[in-house]
Every structure is written in C-alpha cells, then in structure tokens.
Design a protein that fits this description.
The protein has about 130 residues and is mainly beta. It has one domain. The chain contains two helices and nine strands. It has a five-stranded antiparallel β-sheet with strand order 4-5-6-8-9, covered by helices on one side. The chain has a four-stranded mixed β-sheet with strand order 1-7-2-3. Strand 8 and strand 9 form a beta hairpin. The longest helix is centred in the last third of the chain and has 8 residues.
Length: about 130
C-alpha cells in the first residue's frame, strides 16, 4: 500500500490563509455558545439561546481615517452586546445565521492582508456598560 509521507516537522501547523484555521474565528456546528475573547484579554461565553440579532454596517471611523477597518459587526444577546471592527464579516454573519460561530477574537493588524476575514478589535458590553 502506498502512503504519502509528509517530511514537515510540524504537519498540523495552522495556516492563517485557510478559512477553517483563521486566527480570528472558528466554526463548529455543534456549539451552543459563542466564546468572545475581548481585547482586554477577558473571555466570555454567550449562549445562542439568548441571541437576538446581528447587524453588519460600514465602520463610520473609516470615513475619517483611511487605514481604519471598513466594517463593523454588532452581535446582540439578551444581556450583552459584542462589537467588532474589521473586514470580511459576511463569513461571520453566515456562521451566526446557523449558530455555528464558535469563537471570535482580534488578531494583530499584520495579519489583515493574509486573512479574508479579519477582526481588528472586539469589545463587549453588558446592559450598556462596557466590560
């Protein structure tokens, strides 16, 4: 039987350019919660049972600053609101539609050119107060 051998020392190393191995998000059809990693290094688990809506809009800051990320995604839960800025958020919207978005987190700006979906910043607020 012929088997291909991989001479690489680390064959499972993730590639940032592959959508299933993106630094900013992951998709899993079996999850019941969205894990949010905020920029202040806190982690929050929000249940999809409390998901209300998501809104994708142009980032108003990009009108004043050319280098600002072009999109803003707001994900609203019963008790929390997650705001992200970045680019390529239609992929995240499709995953939210199916309750398959496993986690979101920001990635350093140097990865923006390599990623089709890049999250530049993540902020969460509870009942109007930023956490």
């Amino acid at each position: 039987m012929n088997q291909l051998m991989n001479p690489s020392a680390n064959p499972t190393e993730a590639s940032a350019s592959r959508p299933r191995e993106n630094l900013c998000y992951d998709i899993d059809p079996t999850v019941a919660t969205l894990i949010v990693f905020t920029d202040d290094e806190h982690h929050y688990m929000l249940p999809y049972a409390q998901f209300l809506y998501a809104e994708l809009t142009p980032n108003s800051v990009s009108e004043r600053h050319q280098d600002a990320p072009p999109e803003k995604l707001t994900i609203r839960f019963a008790s929390a609101e997650v705001e992200m800025i970045g680019s390529g958020f239609r992929t995240l919207m499709r995953a939210l539609q199916k309750y398959e978005l496993k986690f979101v987190k920001s990635a350093d700006r140097r990865y923006a050119g390599m990623l089709k979906t890049h999250v530049a910043a993540v902020v969460i607020s509870f009942n109007g107060e930023i956490a």
